[in-house]
Specification:
The chain has one domain. It contains 14 helices and no strands. The protein is mainly α and 319 residues long. Helix 4 packs antiparallel against helix 5.
């Protein structure tokens, strides 16, 4: 699987370079020069996004040590998401890092592991709501998408089905049921048998959270949805700095549909190539032009590179 992911990453990287050549380095340089010294403004929305998601994580964690502050979770999430983006692990490579660092802070490992699993499920469901918000706005800002609306809705429904099933499974003791199924058939490996107690405790932690703290789950969902809306603020800001302002509604629509493309490319590290292709196709659909779409995508990648590098510094310091 990792080899396949790396091959896809190589293909996507070639596609990314081809896009840059098609746009032209002079054109891209012109747009970047136009942004000039205002580029630090592009870093602010994602900082707020990560802060909101740290608060969401805080509500998922129950009865944690005093050291587990929102600030601490902010940095741990930043490091974990850097590993998710940069490793060929289908956006899961940073979850063990988050759980292990929480354990080092005094959180029981089963609680720490349950929190990252629950957070992933809530994140997907909130993303689905954001994507459907964009689809609802599409007829007003992207009439040309009408002929592709069925495909877009089916893709969003597929993502919704995955998220809903993932959350339902968390509430039904997946590891314990899997153990019993494998044990009855004599298929249970010895190394898994040694982890039976931990995995059963993980089952209990996940199911108890949904049963005992539904208000916390709802609040975590709301904060994640707000964090997705902040991504559209970034889109609005980028196009304003590029000298081509768009409406807030168009920013939400464009970003939500771009997130759908990115979600479909989750198995490629950093969604390289998939994100760029989706951004450019959407920019063309919104009558913004190929060059402007590519410049928008490059500026987003520069913002992403800054936070990824900062996340890697966090990982290095933690280890």
């Amino acid at each position: 699987m990792r080899l396949a992911n790396l091959i896809l990453l190589l293909i996507a990287s070639v596609f990314f370079v081809w896009i840059l050549n098609e746009v032209g380095w002079d054109t891209l340089g012109h747009y970047l020069w136009q942004v000039g010294w205002y580029w630090p403004l592009l870093l602010l929305p994602y900082g707020l996004v990560n802060w909101l998601e740290a608060w969401s994580w805080k509500y998922i964690l129950v009865d944690t040590p005093a050291r587990t502050t929102v600030g601490r979770l902010f940095w741990l999430r930043l490091g974990g998401e850097a590993l998710n983006q940069l490793t060929p692990t289908a956006s899961l490579g940073g979850e063990p890092f988050k759980a292990s660092r929480l354990q080092a802070d005094g959180v029981p490992l089963e609680m720490a592991s349950a929190s990252v699993v629950i957070m992933k499920g809530i994140l997907v469901l909130s993303l689905v709501l954001y994507i459907f918000t964009g689809l609802a706005l599409a007829p007003f800002y992207l009439p040309e998408a009408a002929k592709h609306m069925l495909f877009l809705c089916l893709a969003a429904l597929g993502l919704a089905a995955v998220g809903i099933i993932f959350v339902i499974v968390q509430r039904r003791e997946p590891f314990g049921n899997s153990f019993r199924f494998l044990n009855r058939r004599g298929w249970l490996p010895h190394f898994l048998r040694d982890q039976e107690g931990f995995l059963e405790n993980l089952d209990t932690a996940m199911s108890q959270f949904y049963r005992q703290y539904p208000s916390r789950a709802a609040l975590a969902f709301f904060l994640f949805f707000l964090s997705w809306l902040l991504h559209s603020v970034e889109v609005y800001l980028i196009f304003w700095l590029l000298g081509h302002p768009i409406s807030p509604g168009m920013a939400v629509c464009l970003d939500a549909l771009a997130m759908l493309f990115t979600a479909l490319g989750f198995f490629i590290p950093a969604a390289m190539g998939v994100q760029e292709g989706g951004n450019i196709l959407l920019a063309l659909g919104f009558k913004l032009g190929f060059d402007l779409g590519a410049a928008f995508s490059i500026l987003r990648r520069l913002r992403e590179a800054f936070w990824l590098c900062l996340g890697l510094v966090v990982v290095w310091r933690e280890k």
